[in-house]
Amino acid sequence: MRLMTSSDKPENAPAAAAAPTGVAAQDWTRASADPQYRAAVVDLLGALAYGELAAFERLAEDAKLAPTLADKAELAKMASAEFHHFERLRDRLTEIGEEPTAAMEPFVAALDGFHRQTAPSDWLEGLVKAYVGDSIASDFYREVAARLDSDSRELVLAVLDDTGHAGFAVEKVRAAIDADPRVGGRLALWARRLMGEALSQSQRVVADRDALSTMLVGGVADGFDLAEVGRMFSRITEAHTKRMAALGLAA
Known about the structure:
mainly alpha; Ferritin; 11 helices; 71% helix; disordered N terminus
């Protein structure tokens, strides 16, 4: 049996993933020798940690709106998963010699403001927010994670794992629209508002933190420039459109 050569490769075969380079090819010990990179990662972990803590609180609150005991239990399970993610991030900050509360503090106002401006009025709006709003934030952090050192990247991707929001939200929202198609229009407007607020909030968080800004436009992480930042937000928008379709809503 001979090895396949490049001429044998099927036209539709996926291209091999490029090997990590620069910071992305380093571990934390080596990468963190750069003070600016270390500050960027501390900011990122702090933002994520507070985001997970806020998600835990919000899901626990949304459980009060659940129409059935089974739905209440499902949201409580998701809230528990979010708190576990928070604990992992908190412990990592402590492990690298940072005080978790101090790392989270700069992001409290922006995240709390986002949640105040997007407080759901009912059960279905809460589900759409958990699915659409949280997914937009996760997409943003995954984009950043691709430029992190291997240890930080592994942690960030692990805490961004779906806690069950996606399938649960899609099932419940689609069932509600099937039962009353008028619900779809209201939820579509709500999801568009979430999209705008979530993107604005992500941009504000980055703009307010010099180390994170530098990571996104180059200078700490490799391969990012202003044009790539624009493409990144285009990819996030495209993913949002697909999620809206999965919910049965117009983007």
